[in-house]
């Protein structure tokens, strides 16, 4: 990925031809090396592991979301992906 960023000058000021080539290479890389995203099950398993390792008194769950509307957006997004 870094090679593509450097090769295509961080995708800034590209000609139409360079943009098409960069897009094609990026898509090819995504097909060859797909990103595996964590699932809710992975998240819960990780929390369980931490609880078993250091105890429930040392485990907290937080979020960077600061307002109720953000949670509504997250929940709607999660529901729309089912």
End-to-end separation in angstroms reads 29 Å
- Globular, elongated, flat, extended or rod-shaped: what is the shape? elongated
Please state the CA-atom Rg, rounded to the nearest Å: 20 Å
- Domain count: the total is 2
Q: How would a textbook summarize the main sheet? A: none
Helical/strand content category: mainly alpha
How many β strands by DSSP? 0
Strand content: under 5%
Q: Percent range for helical residues?
A: 55-70%
- Spans of at least 5 consecutive residues whose pLDDT stays below 50 are none
How many alpha or pi helices?
4
* Average residue-wise pLDDT: 82
Could you give the order of the helices and strands?
HHHH
Describe this entry's structure for a reader.
- The chain is built from four helices and no strands.
- The protein is elongated.
- The chain folds into two domains: 2-32, no CATH class; 40-80, no CATH class.
- It is mainly α.
- Helix content is 62%, strand content 0%.
- The mean pLDDT is 82.
- The longest helix is centred in the N-terminal third of the chain and has 17 residues, at 16-32.
Q: What's a quick, concise take on this entry?
A:
This protein is mainly α and 82 residues long. The protein has helices at residues 2-7, 16-32, 40-54, 68-80. The mean pLDDT is 82.
How are the SSEs placed, and which strands pair?
Elements lengths: L1 H6 L8 H17 L7 H15 L13 H13 L2
């Amino acid at each position: 990925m870094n090679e593509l960023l450097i090769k295509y000058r961080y995708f800034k000021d590209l000609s139409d031809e360079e943009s098409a080539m960069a897009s094609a290479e990026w898509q090819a890389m995504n097909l060859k090396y797909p990103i595996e995203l964590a699932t809710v099950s992975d998240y819960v398993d990780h929390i369980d592991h931490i609880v078993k390792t250091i105890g429930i008194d040392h485990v907290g769950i937080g979020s960077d979301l600061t307002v109720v509307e953000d949670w509504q957006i997250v929940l709607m997004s999660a529901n729309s992906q089912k």
